[in-house]
Amino acid sequence: MRSPTLGLSACLLGLWLCWGSPSWAQVLREPTQEQVLSQDEFLSRLEGVRVLYLGEVHNRPDDQAAQLQILQQWYEQNPELAIGLEMFERPRQVYIDQYLAGEISEAEFLELSEFETRWGFPWESYAPILRFAKAHNLPVLALNAPIEAIREVARGGFDNLSPQNLSYLPPVEEFDLENQAYRQRLQDLFESYHQGHGSSEGFETFFKAQVLWDETMSYHVAEFLQTHPERAMVVIAGQGHILYGDGIPSRVERRLEEIEQLSLVFDPDPTLSSTPERPLADIIWHHEDSDLASDPETPPD
To answer: What spans are recorded as compositionally biased (Acidic residues) (predicted)?
Structure first.
């Protein structure tokens, strides 16, 4: 069984944004070694892959533009794709389906899905991806838990979840809270956000809210792939849900043991550690002349 972030023999691949450039990519086979990877070589890595994770910084339009490029290229190689999006909550799936079927306009879709208020990042960053899916009849999945459920957990743990919100979630008793490296990474983030003044109780509910995000998204990815064995999926989510495989990838693998996965993140924080034993991701995409933007996973209100 292949680990979700140890594919490619624990290599890190650094990919440049320009698909046509002769020096399109760099490969980090060891933390200090580099070699060139071509576009064709990257696409060959996708052969047999069922899930490709694209870890973005939400407020960086270059990330969404690169996601569309990757999606278009993989579609040419394998038209049996689906797209999973963190940007939409499970109760909004009906509106995605109506939009893709042409039953409602894009304007109606935005209003009904409450995209602008629930997600909060510009629609035009993601619109080309949805339009591509509509033009090519690709299924699109709303992966995220309702924000109301996240807030319930953040304020009172899993016992605070309402029956209405539980209906959109996987069984809470299946949640994995034992990943100590993930817990430590989130604790460091929590303490940084609260400048050292956060309580241990506050961290525990924050941690559980993060796990709720990841478990819900992984559950719906796995459920779709189980019922659609002919399809592969592109999963687009924030980097925090993909780095080191701790968030979504490891939880999909727990549900679907024999599954080929590949993770790619765009210009991650250069201060994050990465080793062959615990790589950030299978693939690191570097935008040319990019300025790293901040996009922390902050504790829910």
So the answer is: 291-301
Cα distances from 36 to residues 275, 279, 285, in angstroms, run: 19, 19, 13
Q: What is the residue range of 204's domain?
A: 142-214
Residue 194 inside a domain? The answer is yes
| Residue 190 included in any domain | yes
Both tokens assigned to 58: 């939400």
The SS3 of residue 140 is: strand
Q: Are 1 and 259 in contact (CB under 8 A)?
A: no
Nearest by Cα to 181 from 112, 250, 125? 250
Which residues in the chain show pLDDT less than 50? 1-33, 35, 289-301
Secondary structure (3-state) at 209: helix
- The residue among 160, 161, 126 whose CA lies nearest residue 142 is 126
Determine if the pTM surpasses 0.90: no
Dig out the tokens for 88 from the structure: 């939409």
pLDDT of residue 216: 97
State how far the Cα of 60 lies from the Cα of 39, in Å rounded to an integer. 23
- The predicted pLDDT at position 31 comes to 35
As for how many domains the chain has, the answer is: 1
Q: Encoding tokens for residue 192?
A: 């940084």
| Residue-level pLDDT at 40 | 85
C-alpha dihedral sign at 86, 90, 95, 101: positive
How confident is the model at residue 72, as a pLDDT?
97
156 phi, psi to nearest 5 deg: -160, 15
Closest CA to 72 of 101, 105, 43: 43
Phi, psi (degrees; rounded to nearest 5) at 233 = -135, 140
